[in-house]
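Support request, please re-run this one:
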Amino acid sequence: MAITKMKLVSISTTEQNYEEMLTRCATSPYLHAENASSFVNEENAGKLLSVENVYSDYVNSLKNIGHSIGFEMKAKASIDRTYTQEEIETFIKEVEEQFKVVSDSVESNTLTSDDEVALEALRALDFRAMHDCQYVSFSMGRLPIESVKKLNMIQDHKFIMVKLHATSQYHWICYATANTHLRETRKIFDGLFLEEIKIPTVDSKKIIAEYEEELINVFTYCDERDRLYNLHKYIAVFKDSYVVVGFVPAHDMDKFKKEFEGVDVKIEAHEPSDAPNLTPPTLLKNNWFFKPFEMFVTMYSLPAYNDIDPTVFVGITYCFLFGIMFGDLGQGFLLVLGGLLLEKKLNNKLAGIVGRVGLTSMLFGFLFGSVFGNEEILIPVHQGLFNVHEKLINVMDGNFTMTLLISAVVIGAVLILITMMINMFIHIKHKDWGELFFSQNGLAGFVFYGFLMVAIAGQFVFGFNLLTPTWLIPFVGIPIVLFFFKEPLSHLIQGKGIKPHGGWGNFCLETFFEVFEILLSFITNSMSYLRVGGFVLSHAGMMLVVMTLVEMTGNAGPIVFVIGNLFVMALEGLIVGIQTLRLEYYEMFSRYYQGGGKKFTLISSDN
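Re-run finished. Output below.
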């Protein structure tokens, strides 16, 4: 419904407490912090906090170690103890040396999940002890199931074998033999097509387990320090004070102050206008119904803090236009049901928009007398409610087509005039008198376009003629002159020179084509709304095809009915949704909306 009002806050403390202050700021769900570089300057004698962040390198080193051995480095929720830089560097050097052997062992084997199971079964024998044996050699691998049967037939073999794991295709085995019989034994297993798997030189899991707890503790400490140092960009130093400046929603100020209880800080609140060099962020505030439509606004551009939030207008016009173009009571009900369920389950804004436009689809579907493409089922209801011969609005009646198209243009004209009024309100708010009085979307454009719409309506509907010099000169001629001289007149109001920068010759030539484009845009923008009527006919025509196919397919009619409705809902719904959004962006936003706002971003999102 509006843009949330902000307070400019300043949080300051001493050098001894600034890290605790910064930690509280970093976890706040209310603070949008400003980079210190945006308000520190020579006039206020402030300085940026410049401290080398060595912890970023520590974090990367620990992550690389974990990656090399297949160990996920994940920080804990809290720190168990603190470490000096010397302790951290010594620990990293130690684990790098220890895990180099583990890394080499991991890289030398490309193991399947079944290989891992077999290796786990062999782990009980101790890999290091197996490699240290002087007179006995060990080997492991997988044998095809057919080779296992042949192995049982070998007599007087000079080896001992154990089965580690089995599947329907392979058996994983480990054999041990004296060094004097190694060559003979290998020859036997080579003939049986043994796929050898290298036995690791060290037990990586055992080594990892020895260091795991300390590794996680050091990583947690370094990660937290790294994130804290990354927030130093928000700290400004003024003499002995360490200051964070930012914006907090006005209604959350009391909650924000409570977050610093127990910390020696000073919090001051000001109006955003007290710091004109800082741009307040934009936080949209809308009710449940219009909240999903914020997505369309932010896709285009956030409104500036001092502008208006167009979300409600977008929500109303989008639902209205979509409902007209996709008018079907039954299909609209499915859109409502499916959209609201998906919104609740997935918290998806687009699904929420689908659910809401389904309501207006139901409304216009009822007025059009259409239920899943059936154009006759609501005739008795319309006759009883509206006292009509058949239906209140018969879209498929050929005599109604011209009325429908003219109505679409009238809807477009009304929306164009409304957007002009919104534009004028914005310029009044910003005291931008040149744009207010002389632009095609300001007062001059409103008079010009409004008069033409009234004159055309009077000529063809009410029978009176306003297209005479008496009316055309003040309501058409003067606005066109104002369009032409908008730039010099705006400069005159601002107290600047009236002469254009490029001289009168260049100005007249360029402005002539600009005014011609303005006049042409009024025509094209109005005609663009013909698509509203066109899609009403398109939707009705597609459903007529579906109902015809249902009648032609006999017993398969119900299946064709369901598939046809789903197909039309998917295809037509997507096209209508896109075309409605196009009308919002190109025909409406272009007349009143500038955007360019800065998103309200919590400092906690940097953490």
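The CA atoms of residues 78 and 410 lie 64 Å apart. The first strand starts at residue 2 and ends at 3.
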